User: Fold this.
Amino acid sequence: MKPIVLFVDDEPNILQGLRRNLRGMRGEWDMAFANGGAEALEYMQAARVDVVVSDMRMPGMDGARLLAEVAARQPHAIRFILSGQVGHDEAFRLIGTSHQFLAKPCDTEVLLASVKRALALRDLIADEGVQSLVSSLRELPTPPDIYDELVHELQLPEPAVHKVTEIVARDIALTTKVLQVAGSGYFGVGEKAASLLQAVARLGVERVRSLVLTHGIVARYEGPKVGGVDLDGLWAHSVTCGGLAQSIAKDAGLDDKAAENAFVAGLLHDIGALVLAANQPEKYEAIVAVSHCEDIARLEAERQALGASHARVGAYLVGLWGLPDIVVEAVAHHHTPCDCPGRGFDVVTAVHVAEGLTQAHEWTGPDEPLEKVLDFEYLAAVGVADRLSGWAELLTGMGQERDCA
Ligand SMILES: [Fe+2]
Ligand SMILES: [Fe+2]
Assistant:
């Protein structure tokens, strides 16, 4: 069955243009065009849509209100918001219901690529049982509202550090996290950032964006634990893994962009576990218990109980949020890098090593056999098995990170 993509706009000529420009996709998608929110919701009464792309500014029901309705009525649907008037605080506060933000005017090619990518991600994970699992989740988390503002800032030719700082400063908990991460050993040993502005400048806008995303998702949940997952522990683990993945990538000679992607993927690698735990807390608590007591890898326990792993669910979400493909891959394969053979050392390797070293250190101390958490056959094939002890030493600067929790 072909997926249904619903486009919503209040201007008939824009819908006409879309109809014309997207004609070539008829073989792959069923497309519907609604003139405004009310018409879209009426259409959805009779049809299960897969993707909704809505304009923000519409009279009556605006795009944010419509997508909130879509989220309530058909939570599995992937939601895109198109907006021209961005940067206004009020408008942005309304956008927490979309999975991805597209700036207007949006090139047909960009729109096409975004929708294609979202659907392809879904297909990619179909075999793993993730699709049915994801469809059954009560909700697919959306990035926090201020994340959209940062995405907009990043789309400008020269993202302004002071503007990013202003956005981050509105959230006290987030400000604390950014200061702590910027002051950690991975970004200039021993130097504490004197101000938020300095911290943002040191981290760079991309890293700040991924911190905002991760913090926003973790902060949605209340209490110390969700479905057996310790939230503070998960945050500390994620930050350490991100920082270590970045250091390893640099040490192995990858360029700055790749090191940045390693940080982002390391930060987000376990986000799928949180989503699974939040949506199926009892089942997930049992999975955590089984994987501890019986020493079965959590991945295997997840596959047995839920039909899919946190790695695949996380990759799906990270892709849905529009992060680069290499980040999606690194999240998908952080426990199983052998699924990406024959490529040499890359971001996937850096994140796998960082995850293994961090996990071994956190759970059981440095004496735990690393074979349990690292794929030595893969690491030997990539030619880096002999560098593990050096990379493990990078963890010494981790104490400061731990204080973040
Ligand atoms: Fe992990
Ligand atoms: Fe993991």
User: Anything to note?
Assistant: The two ends are 46 Å apart (CA to CA). The chain has two domains: 4-124, 145-402. Residues 87-95, 400-405 have pLDDT under 50 and may be disordered. Strands lie at 4-8, 30-34, 51-55, 78-83, 100-103, 225-226, 229-230.
